[in-house]
Specification:
The protein is mostly helical. The protein has one domain. It is globular, with a radius of gyration of 19 Å.
Length: 288
């Protein structure tokens, strides 16, 4: 992988991890479409993708640092009123419960889905399916809105956090967006778009950090002859920083976007993109 390819992959990761269009799907499809000579079956490919994810997780941690600091204070029972401490502990519990499905399912099926990571055709097909997921989420949200007002994140219950976590777990399939699936889960349980996105972004930090903890040691142990020098050197870490900066900007944009278009169907444009790009990529890969 050249320096330019790594930077393009980093920018793509920083955008598509937060935008509900599947970062993993794009990371698998784009090299195939551009005929990049990258061995996606190589043991170093997945760790490289994970390092880009770690850059994204760092950006999310920095963007929501006040939230994470408040959560820490709430757990310790300091720095606020009794009500504030209760709210912070409630949010922390929601995050823990929402993270559990990805941890359990990832542990049980990680080896089974790993082969799909290197299949551009499978990723393109699932990207089309992701479009239907987003589109259906907006239709279900409209039906729910007819029967009651949207709720804030602090009004969510633990069963709803668990359901959102189950939605998030579908992103183990390349082409299904983690952020998109968890946002749809949030809309299904009655959250506003902005709150669904905020919860999705907060959930991303432990999930992505956990993946990094598991995979980065494998990357650092790669011998020079197997690409360890390249993937453990400046190309890797520069790409991680680029992914982080791009993710930070993407987070700020999306939260403002969902706040501005709460009354419409803000996930629909992303659904149309997934249908178009996924279908064209699938057609191109099948006739290649």
């Amino acid at each position: 992988m050249s320096f330019m390819q790594a930077i393009i992959a980093a920018v793509l990761q920083g955008i598509t991890e937060l935008f509900p269009v599947s970062s993993l799907g794009h990371a698998v499809i784009l090299p195939a479409l551009l005929h990049w000579h990258i061995d996606e079956h190589a043991p170093r490919f997945l760790p490289f993708i994970v390092v880009l994810h770690v850059g994204t997780a760092t950006a999310l941690l920095l963007y929501f640092w006040r939230t994470w600091l408040s959560l820490a204070r709430g757990l310790l029972g300091v720095g606020g009123t009794r009500r504030a401490v209760h709210e912070e502990r409630h949010l922390f519990l929601l995050l823990v419960i929402g993270t559990l499905p990805a941890v359990v399912i990832g542990f049980l099926f990680e080896r089974g889905v790993r082969d799909l990571f290197a299949s551009p055709i499978a990723a393109a097909g699932f990207l089309v399916a992701n479009g239907f997921l987003l589109f259906l989420g907006e239709r279900l949200r409209r039906r729910g809105s007819a029967s009651g007002e949207r709720r804030s994140l602090l009004e969510a219950r633990w069963r709803e956090a668990l359901l959102i976590g189950l939605f998030q777990s579908t992103a183990f399939l390349p082409g299904i967006s983690r952020s998109g699936a968890s946002m749809v889960g949030g809309l299904v349980v009655g959250l506003k778009h902005e709150d669904a996105a905020r919860f999705s972004f907060l959930l991303a930090t432990p999930v992505i950090a956990g993946a990094g903890i598991l995979e980065i040691p494998k990357l650092l142990r790669l011998p020079v002859g197997a690409g360890g020098a390249m993937f453990g050197g400046p190309i890797l870490w520069t790409a991680g920083i680029v992914a982080g900066v791009t993710a930070y900007v993407s987070t700020a944009f999306l939260l403002r976007y969902f706040r501005a278009y709460e009354k419409s169907a803000p996930l629909d444009p992303f659904a149309w993109y997934c249908w178009l790009f996924g279908a064209l990529a699938l057609l191109r890969l099948l006739i290649a």
